[in-house]
Design a protein that fits this description.
- The protein is an alpha+beta fold.
- The chain has one domain.
- Helix content is 35%, strand content 28%.
- The chain is built from seven helices and eleven strands.
- The strands form two sheets. Strands 2, 3, 4, 5, 6, 7, 8, 9 and 11 form a nine-stranded antiparallel β-sheet that branches.
């Protein structure tokens, strides 16, 4: 039987270098796999983080809101969903929806109101970006639109937070998720939607922005971070 030829020291060294490089690459890839950074916030906990008195407004009931279409994806998306109506003296009632998800990735992302209102039979005006005060000296990039239904016209102000971003379009929202995933993070996300029944946005916007600022200001610290990424 022929004897095996001994391997050269150079070949051994090359194999060690290649193997080490592969292990390092594998370690980097594993380290960059996105991981969830926030725990789920269930409805009962979210209810406590959203105040029942917000400035001049007090909680009235949970009826009358346009809700996202119910399907398997929506049910899996949100860990917490709060819907309320608030009333204040000499002001129109305000409707609030807060939807929270602790996992925003390429498949599961917070819905935007431009989807649920048409599903409910509303016709929308163009969405317009607007900077609104957060009640603590800063601002929130938000959106506004009018929704005309069969029996009512609703003026809508909303924002979405994805991690530390406030994307004002669906494209920017997807980019915010992608950037976080590249950074190795699966971010959390929230939709805050504030609306009122009024004939036009010009008459409704002062109350909507005042309510938004009072909402963040009245929330506990955990709620402020969840709603607007502020302490």
């Amino acid at each position: 039987m022929d004897e095996l030829e001994p391997q050269s020291p150079g070949l051994d060294r090359r194999m060690v270098v290649i193997g080490g490089a592969l292990l390092a690459a594998g370690g980097v890839a594993a380290a960059r796999v996105p991981h969830v950074v926030a725990r789920p916030v269930r409805k009962a906990e979210l209810e406590k983080l959203v105040p029942r008195q917000i400035g001049d407004w007090r909680y009235r009931d949970e009826s009358g809101l346009v809700l996202p279409p119910s399907d398997a994806l929506s049910d899996a998306l949100y860990s917490g969903l709060v819907t309320r109506t608030y009333a204040a003296p000499n002001r129109d009632p305000v409707m609030l929806l807060v939807a929270y998800s602790n996992k925003q990735d390429g498949m599961m992302q917070v819905h935007r109101p431009e989807v649920c209102y048409p599903a409910g039979g509303y016709k929308l005006t163009s969405t317009r970006p607007v900077e609104i005060p957060n009640g603590l000296g800063g601002t929130i990039p938000a959106n506004s639109f009018s929704a005309d239904g069969i029996s009512r016209t609703e003026q809508v102000l909303y924002w979405t937070r994805v991690g530390s971003y406030f994307p004002v379009s669906w494209t920017r929202q997807r980019l915010a998720v992608m950037q976080a995933n590249i950074d190795g993070v699966i971010p959390d996300g929230v939709l805050v939607r504030i609306s009122t029944l009024a004939p036009d946005m010009a008459s409704a916007l002062p109350d909507l922005t005042a309510f938004a600022a009072a909402l963040v200001r009245a929330a506990p610290p955990v709620g402020r971070r969840l709603l607007a990424n502020v302490a």
